Amino acid sequence: MNPVLAELHDKARAVLDPVHHDFFAGGAGDEVVLAENEAAFRRLALLPRVLRGREIGEDFPVMISPTAFHKLAHPDGELATARALSGTTLVSSTASTVPIADVVAAATGPVWFQLYVQPDMAVTEALVRRAEQAGCRALVVTADSPVFGRHRRDLAHGFHDLPPGLAAENMRDLVEPGLRNIAMSPTVSWEHIDRLREMTALPLWVKGILHPQDAELAVGHGVAGVVVSNHGGRQLDLVPASLDALPAVVDAVAGRVPVALDGGVRSGGDIALALALGASAVGIGRPVLWGLAADGDQGVRRVLDVLRDEFLHVLTLCGGELSRDMVVKRC
Ligand SMILES: Cc1cc2nc3c(=O)[nH]c(=O)nc-3n(C[C@H](O)[C@H](O)[C@H](O)COP(=O)(O)O)c2cc1C
Ligand SMILES: CCCCC(=O)C(=O)O
């Protein structure tokens, strides 16, 4: 892990209510997948190419993955995260504690809207219109959550509601006045993806793909991209590390749409490994929350800056290009 990220996590742990720290840090079940997401990177090595004789560009293929409830981390919540982007894309959660229009207004980079499809499609449509009117550039439908994950740390703390004064603001006054809960439903299907495509011209990504046949289905349903993700180990605690699931999805998609990855990315080297295995970009979840809790927008900026600097350094050391033949197992 990049030491700056470790330092920011230490600082976040010191300032956060332990219940909120554990909400951010925790995973589902025995937290096997949570640990595996990071461990998977340590099992791989990169074989650099040399003497390629080229300067590298400044492209930084990183997005901020959608995470809920930023006001639990910092009083400015998602506004602080949005201010820190300087060109990086923020995927803003349905469960943000700031309305999406305010997130976009504060943003210094593109904002995409992460959508939990609501079984009442009138509610889903109202969310989509809200995201469109706010100026979001894409929708990211989270597909790995037919039901809430069971997070033992939250259950042990009895944490199931936001404290008074905080709410999932995007869920206010949709269809009718008042605040709705975010529903997760096993009835959500590819048919909803088709309906969303008819409903909006925004590019539609699907997040939470692990099985190559689902990647194939996603392409068949006309998505603009897929995100290989296990929700940071917060849903099914039986799945592979997202890095280990990546190559089969990349093969199934075969270049037809971009394939992003999130889960366990903690250094510039991790970004390079994911790209070498075929990811077009990576998403960062918890480290952004640690930066936010430690130091608001400055902390988030620091996370992005150290990852950018480290990634470009690793890329230079690798000869400026990354491909699957450069990845080997450590023995
Ligand atoms: C506290 C927390 C809240 C999250 N909330 C959402 C969410 O609202 N929507 C979503 O699609 N994913 C959510 N995720 C999953 C992240 O988008 C992402 O897949 C995961 O955090 C990536 O792993 P990382 O934290 O190891 O970088 C959440 C993750 C965390 C840690
Ligand atoms: C309704 C909030 C969902 C947040 C989430 O996706 C998570 O905590 O992993």
UniProtKB/TrEMBL annotation:
<dbReference type="InterPro" id="IPR012133">
    <property type="entry name" value="Alpha-hydoxy_acid_DH_FMN"/>
</dbReference>
<feature type="binding site">
    <location>
        <position position="93"/>
    </location>
    <ligand>
        <name>FMN</name>
    </ligand>
</feature>
<dbReference type="GO" id="GO:0005737">
    <property type="term" value="C:cytoplasm"/>
</dbReference>
<keyword id="KW-0560">Oxidoreductase</keyword>
<feature type="binding site">
    <location>
        <begin position="66"/>
        <end position="68"/>
    </location>
    <ligand>
        <name>FMN</name>
    </ligand>
</feature>
<feature type="binding site">
    <location>
        <position position="114"/>
    </location>
    <ligand>
        <name>FMN</name>
    </ligand>
</feature>
<dbReference type="InterPro" id="IPR008259">
    <property type="entry name" value="FMN_hydac_DH_AS"/>
</dbReference>
<feature type="binding site">
    <location>
        <position position="229"/>
    </location>
    <ligand>
        <name>FMN</name>
    </ligand>
</feature>
<feature type="binding site">
    <location>
        <begin position="262"/>
        <end position="266"/>
    </location>
    <ligand>
        <name>FMN</name>
    </ligand>
</feature>
<keyword id="KW-0285">Flavoprotein</keyword>
<dbReference type="InterPro" id="IPR013785">
    <property type="entry name" value="Aldolase_TIM"/>
</dbReference>
<feature type="binding site">
    <location>
        <position position="231"/>
    </location>
    <ligand>
        <name>glyoxylate</name>
    </ligand>
</feature>
<dbReference type="GO" id="GO:0016491">
    <property type="term" value="F:oxidoreductase activity"/>
</dbReference>
<dbReference type="InterPro" id="IPR037396">
    <property type="entry name" value="FMN_HAD"/>
</dbReference>
<feature type="binding site">
    <location>
        <position position="142"/>
    </location>
    <ligand>
        <name>FMN</name>
    </ligand>
</feature>
<feature type="domain" description="FMN hydroxy acid dehydrogenase">
    <location>
        <begin position="1"/>
        <end position="331"/>
    </location>
</feature>
<dbReference type="InterPro" id="IPR000262">
    <property type="entry name" value="FMN-dep_DH"/>
</dbReference>
<dbReference type="GO" id="GO:0010181">
    <property type="term" value="F:FMN binding"/>
</dbReference>
<feature type="binding site">
    <location>
        <position position="116"/>
    </location>
    <ligand>
        <name>glyoxylate</name>
    </ligand>
</feature>
<feature type="binding site">
    <location>
        <position position="234"/>
    </location>
    <ligand>
        <name>glyoxylate</name>
    </ligand>
</feature>
<feature type="binding site">
    <location>
        <position position="207"/>
    </location>
    <ligand>
        <name>FMN</name>
    </ligand>
</feature>
<feature type="active site" description="Proton acceptor">
    <location>
        <position position="231"/>
    </location>
</feature>
<dbReference type="Pfam" id="PF01070">
    <property type="entry name" value="FMN_dh"/>
</dbReference>
<comment type="similarity">
    <text>Belongs to the FMN-dependent alpha-hydroxy acid dehydrogenase family.</text>
</comment>
<keyword id="KW-0288">FMN</keyword>
<protein>
    <submittedName>
        <fullName>4-hydroxymandelate oxidase</fullName>
    </submittedName>
</protein>
<feature type="binding site">
    <location>
        <begin position="285"/>
        <end position="286"/>
    </location>
    <ligand>
        <name>FMN</name>
    </ligand>
</feature>
